[in-house]
Amino acid sequence: MAVGLVDILSSAQMAHHLSAARALISGHGACSVPGSGVVASPSGAATANAYLMHAQLTDDSYRVAAHPGLAVIPVAVAIAEDVWKNCHLSGDRFLRSVVAGYECAGALADRLLPTVSHRGWRVTSVIAPLAAAVTAAYLLSFDDATAISAIGLAAATAGGPLSVVATGGDGWRLQPALAVQSGIAAMLAAGAGLRSGTDSMGTEHGYLSHFGARDPRPTANRRPAVHDVTFKRYPVAMYGQSIFDALCTLDRITGEISRLRISLHPFAAQYGNQSQNSAGSISDVRSIAVAGLQSFHPGLTLPHSADRRWIEIDADPEMHPLNATLELTLADASHYATAGNGDTSHWGATDFTHRCGEHLGPRGRDIAALALALPAGAGLADLLHRWQKEAVIVG
């Protein structure tokens, strides 16, 4: 929760991202979009804040490729702000809605990955409408029939091409926010009385078969998805965290590179080594490696090769999806070997507080303290009041 809010506030401090967020606001209401100067509708705030949360590629991840938080946290906060003055909303209900949204996103990602990606769909935009609808429906205490219709209607809007992460531009930033918007619209439509068709998700040519679900039945005894969410230290793709981590562990290297070999799990290697990847795209493993080399080893001279084929990518099925090994060879035959681990699912309160402080200083640490106090029964009002105050400060 705290990391997501801090990511939103951090992006809102950048003029170009704030301008885009303002453009996504539709309708007026009681909800905050940091820096916008607008009190927005729940749909407008959730959409704009989902964009801001994802804009710097610093938001959380699940199973390497999915970004569940952007479909859950902006929605939960917007709905909470909208209903706060008209009804009593407990911190427990708020947190349960967040967990429900993450569980929806995680359960779908578990069943769809990796097939959904192999079929050319971006998993975040496939699961985000449903996760957003579930988060809002739970928070608003929809009855079962209405909640099921919200999910079914959201499923009818799902999808988005994976190519946006490989071809440059800003489509990758915008696409998930629009998926969240469609999920909120589906939830509102269900609340107004629209109903989804019978078994609209499981039928032939339905959501599950279309996006490649491996098993139409839920997996028994799986642990809650929220426990397997991972968080980023660096503003690169989740599978790039291990590459940055590996390069960070090496002492400063100088000289001229002749070869870099990167070993990754096959899913990461394929996802980040698509044939249509443009140089500098967010999914390109070679671009991620170059960014890491320039960040941690500025004294290195990189080969002048447009295709960057001096970087070799090896798919190793024995590797953990969030690990990487690197072998670096210089022109003078010096050789360096290192390994990185991008798995942060074990993070605790200290890690979250540090992460929030890195991005927003003392304000970030204060937000972390308020969010971390919610499970202990602290007031949701304190967090919402601070959120609204921060929204004005950014402006």
UniProtKB/TrEMBL annotation:
Coiled coil: none annotated. GO terms for molecular function: lyase activity. Residues 12-212 form the MmgE/PrpD N-terminal domain. This is MmgE/PrpD N-terminal domain-containing protein. InterPro entries: MmgE/PrpD_sf, MmgE/PrpD_sf_1, MmgE_PrpD, MmgE_PrpD_N. The lineage of its organism: Bacteria, Bacillati, Actinomycetota, Actinomycetes, Mycobacteriales. Gene3D superfamilies: 2-methylcitrate dehydratase PrpD (1.10.4100.10). It comes from Mycolicibacterium goodii. Belongs to the PrpD family.
